[in-house]
Amino acid sequence: MGELCIKVGGVTLTEHRIHGESKEGIQWYLGPVVAWLLSQWKWLMHEEAYTWKTHSGESAAFTVEADLERYMASAYPSDRLVYKHIRAWWMRHALRSADPSALLPSIVIRRVEDTIEVSWLDKQPDFSPEGHELNLNPGVALFPVEEVAKPLWEFLQWATTSAQPVTRDDHTQIQSLRKRLEATQQTQSVELEAAYMADDICHEVMDKIRSSHWIPNGKALTDIPVVTQFDMPVLMFGGLNVDIGTSDVRKLFDVLVQQHRGTDDKELAELVSSPSIYEYLQPYTHGYELAYQIREALQIDTDVAFVDVEKHLERLGIAIQEIDLKTNSVRGVAIAGEDFLPTIVINTSHKFNNSARGRRFTLAHEFCHILFDRSRAKRLSHISGPWTSGRVEKRANAFAAMFLATPHALERALNSVSSRDRKVINKLAETFGIGTGALLEHLRNFDLISEDDFQAISGYRYH
Ligand SMILES: [Zn+2]
């Protein structure tokens, strides 16, 4: 028995009321929590990707709960299988899976690139007794890996060394937990990293990469079994849960090797920052704001209609490479960071990139990743596709739209025409060098086009 109190960034997640009295910690058996933390350690600290298809841009706590609800009720056999995958992921990451009889808060811990995401919901435990209520608002926070790994590991050490056995059973249980702690401590970095790689192909490719001339640049703590910074190829391919073939991975790895040992240009380095993706802003508003900042820094007037994105990228020392990948789900790839020449890879087999306007949009989108989506270690290897975090992608799309077309310039162009029909919009899209669909959405966000016109031109109608 003990008291469990969990604080995350100053918020006490275990705070609750019981019969009108407020308490910070939960008094219950700690054994199951200790056992769960030990058995799921490598997943908690290193697994990011979901093992089923989901488009959620929300926190892991929200995503996994919402998807469990969605698939639980389904009678379709294929949905049952998806449910099993979600449930298994939940067991590896959700604190409540440690002990369903304890009144634990709904907390989910997972890796997100080189950080750890802790997220929680305000959902009360399933079997709350009368008069018991958790005091929580849903939330999410990203932390440097060691700031989560260290207190958790210290808790495990404290729990296994200070526990006082009373019965023979206690004695056996404590002995077994101590053994597990020792075994976990011995886990090799390669095995820990493997927890990040969702796909079997990744494992295969990483084996090949390890036997090549690549010098691993990952980092791990010495006293706690945790990788704080993934080896760059692991970071690049590991978080993906996608059908990407070995030959594509090979091609992208070659780019990584080729661009290794470069650096950011001084002017670029001054523009780079890592604004949180969980700002209290809609991702598109955030993307717009960031694009404004960058246009100003690059001294592009708000009235300019056609922005020469390639010229600006070139000036900032960002390389552009075209690659013909087998998969058509990857639109672009962004690579940057210490020791890397910042590079945008354009996948020529993606239909979006066949037109000059689509290609410009991809460049502007990846430019946003290079500027604002670097991990704490200031590295980036981001593959843009339908499976990547919704919020990050939405922000990059908004950035691209705003970088290519400001409302000032659009309004000015629209003032010179009397109607808003398909022809006018197509002409406008051509002037700004932006796709018609992207432009329409952009105009709607600024109320530069009425909802009726938007629906009439995009051919989309509500019935
Ligand atoms: Zn992207």
Please provide a brief summary of the model:
The protein is of the alpha+beta class and 463 residues long. The protein has helices at residues 31-46, 60-72, 77-93, 145-162, 168-185, 189-194, 200-210, 232-238, 246-259, 266-271, 283-297, 309-315, 356-372, 390-404, 407-415, 422-432, 436-445, 451-458, and strands at residues 2-4, 7-8, 11-12, 16-18, 21-23, 26-28, 107-112, 115-120, 132-134, 139-144, 219-220, 227-229, 319-323, 332-337, 340-347, 380-384.
pLDDT averaged residue by residue: 89
Strand line-up across the major sheet: 13-15-14-16
The tally of domains stands at 3
Q: Which percent band covers the strand fraction? A: 5-15%
Q: Which ligands, by name, code or SMILES, are bound?
A: zinc ion
Low-confidence stretches: none
Distance between the termini: 60 Å
Integer-rounded radius of gyration: 25 Å
Using the alpha-carbon principal axes, give the shape: globular
Number of H/I helices = 18
Q: Kindly state the number of beta strands.
A: 16
| Helix percent band | 40-55%
Descriptive overview:
By secondary structure, the chain is α+β, with helices and mostly antiparallel strands. It folds into three domains: about 1-185, no CATH class; about 240-405, no CATH class; about 410-460, no CATH class. Helices cover about 45% and strands about 15% of the residues. Helix 7 (about 200-210) packs across helix 9 and helix 17 (about 435-445) packs antiparallel against helix 18. The mean pLDDT is about 90. The structure holds zinc ion. Zinc ion binds next to helix 13, strand 16 and helix 14.
